């Protein structure tokens, strides 16, 4: 059994920090119904912060493991472009915590 969630009920599953800022209700341009929209201008800056933070953590782990800053030849692991979608889905999960993903089989 499925039923539509209307209006403000949608925001019950979205963290208040993101409601009406990063996430808003808008009229769908083709279907004529209201839907949740995650604003790309805001999500791009959040994605950049998340990826920068992940790269900083990778650098900190390298220094902790090796005791010194890496040289360019060392090839410190950084965020791979092919994992961008995975990071985006983790961002969506942070915005809408009721969404669950099984990421146990992915080697990051």
Question: Using DSSP, what is the number of strands?
Answer: 2
Mean pLDDT: 76
- The residue fraction in helices comes out at 25-40%
Structural class: alpha+beta
For the largest sheet, list the strands in their spatial order: 1-2
Enumerate the spans where pLDDT stays under 50 for 5 or more consecutive residues.
none
**Shape label:** elongated
Classify the beta-strand content into a percent band.
5-15%
CA radius of gyration: 18 Å
- Give the N-terminus to C-terminus distance in angstroms: 37 Å
Task: Give the SSE string.
Answer: EEHH
Number of helices: 2
- In this structure, how is the largest beta sheet organized? 2 strands, antiparallel
How would you sum up this structure, described in words?
The chain has 108 residues and is of the alpha+beta class. It is built from two helices and two strands, in the order E-E-H-H. It has helices spanning 40-66, 84-95, and strands at residues 23-27, 34-38. The protein has a two-stranded antiparallel sheet with strand order 1-2. The longest helix has 27 residues, at 40-66. The chain is elongated, with a radius of gyration of 18 Å.
